[in-house]
């Protein structure tokens, strides 16, 4: 018998025994249900909700040391996400795609994903052309942020080399 975990807006079922997959009926003609999830392009106005999902998804002690839940940290991430979404939507050849997952009839942002596209020859992605040092929020641990993101970037270069393939950058979700 499946166990059910009831959240304020969604139900999640944990199944102990494997079952045969069943086809999902088309729902285009039906009104959205409370537990429907929708994948949509993110807009700049989604950046506050995306920042909240991000900060709650990365809530372990290490992430909290880099980015405590403070107003300046939240504002920093709202601005970062808004800028990246605006740039990707305005570019004739976007290098980043942002998707959001909304839940329920009210469209609460429950998750988001960030995807880096391969860039055409002669162009650079935003991450490669942005050589200015990031100004971290005052309440963040700037030294730890520099070391962590510096290591992430060097590992990306080591793994990707000079290849221009796109890659999945980030998936953040928050259980409602």
Automatic annotation (TrEMBL):
Polar residues: compositionally biased ranges: 9-19
Disordered: region residues: 1-43
InterPro entries: Trichothecene_AcTrans
PANTHER family: ACETYLTRANSFERASE, GNAT FAMILY FAMILY (AFU_ORTHOLOGUE AFUA_8G05690), GNAT FAMILY ACETYLTRANSFERASE
Name of the protein: N-acetyltransferase domain-containing protein
Native source organism of the sequence: Aspergillus piperis CBS 112811
């Amino acid at each position: 018998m499946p166990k059910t975990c009831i959240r304020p807006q969604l139900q999640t079922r944990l199944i102990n025994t494997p079952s045969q997959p069943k086809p999902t009926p088309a729902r285009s003609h039906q009104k959205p249900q409370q537990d429907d999830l929708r994948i949509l392009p993110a807009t700049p106005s989604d950046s506050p909700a995306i920042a909240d999902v991000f900060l709650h998804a990365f809530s372990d002690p290490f992430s909290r040391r880099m980015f405590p839940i403070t107003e300046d940290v939240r504002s920093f991430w709202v601005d970062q996400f808004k800028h990246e979404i605006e740039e990707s939507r305005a570019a004739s050849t976007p290098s980043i795609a942002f998707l959001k997952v909304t839940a329920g009839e009210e469209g609460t942002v429950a998750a988001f994903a960030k995807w880096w596209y391969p860039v055409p020859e002669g162009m650079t992605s935003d991450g490669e052309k942005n050589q200015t040092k990031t100004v971290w929020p005052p309440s963040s641990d700037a030294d730890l942020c520099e070391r962590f993101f510096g290591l992430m970037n060097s590992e990306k270069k080591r793994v990707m080399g000079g290849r221009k393939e796109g890659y999945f950058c980030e998936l953040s979700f928050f259980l409602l």
